[in-house]
Amino acid sequence: MSNAVSVLNGASFTGLAEVKDAGLVGMITLRGDLASKSLAKAVKECTGCAIPGIRKVTQADGTTVVWMSPDELLIVTAYQDVDAKVDALSTALTGAHALVVNVSDARAMFTVSGSGAREVLAKVAPVDFAADQFVPGGFRRTRLAQVAGAFWLDTDACFNIVCFRSVGQYVFDLLTTSADANAEVGVY
Amino acid sequence: MLILECPYCGVHAEETELQAGGEAHLKRFGPGSSDEDFHDYLFMRENPKGVHFERWRHVNGCGKWFHAARCTVTLEVFGTYTAQTGTPPQALLDEISTKRPGWTWREFTDASAPHAGAEDAS
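The joint structure predicted for all components is written out below.
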């Protein structure tokens, strides 16, 4: 078995904000009826998290459950725990109209933290990052310049960015350009 | 800039997050239909000066299709609503009738107008 590495193998950059490849992160796509009790129970037992509200995330014990669309969740957890969690969820959802897939190696994850984090992201995504608009626990699926991306804000003022692995280099280059120390706008 | 509210995720999405999906509420005529119905289904589209109904997809977002009603003259957006319907919601139709008295679009018209749908007969 080859040695799994994340898209940029832990690259980091410090400018207006600190941009980091988050390393190997486990991600599970779960599609199904988010209003169903059996799905909520399965997610609760597997992750410890409740089903998040629209454009929100819920977190417990290092696992994050992200609202992706009216019928889709993304479960972000430790890379080595993914297979066990996929099995547990699939078993719990037997008979239900639901889909559980390990997408860890199809995605890349970056973190943007520091005082300039909101500004760095505001330059590349059509989203209002005002502190009273984009609050911790908030999530948004949108575009990062020319590619699809999604991000949520942790309670510790750290943005977690998820994108397809195939565009990982592009997103990292984009964020580092946006975070260039000489590119401050000073809006937020 | 065009800004539509996605009825599924509540985002006020600007047009770079959206993908236009053409005219709304087309009725499909498939196998077994007459050539004329099939032709009209494939090729005939409204090109109104005024109220128009369209399909849009929140492509750089939740990925869902939805409907939007807007004015092609002023670009005013009357409202958006989910894709799981064959007709626009009555509240939206009433709002359009208030703002554009006498409007007509395909089989939908200002119900309060005295000669609603009269233009269709010509």
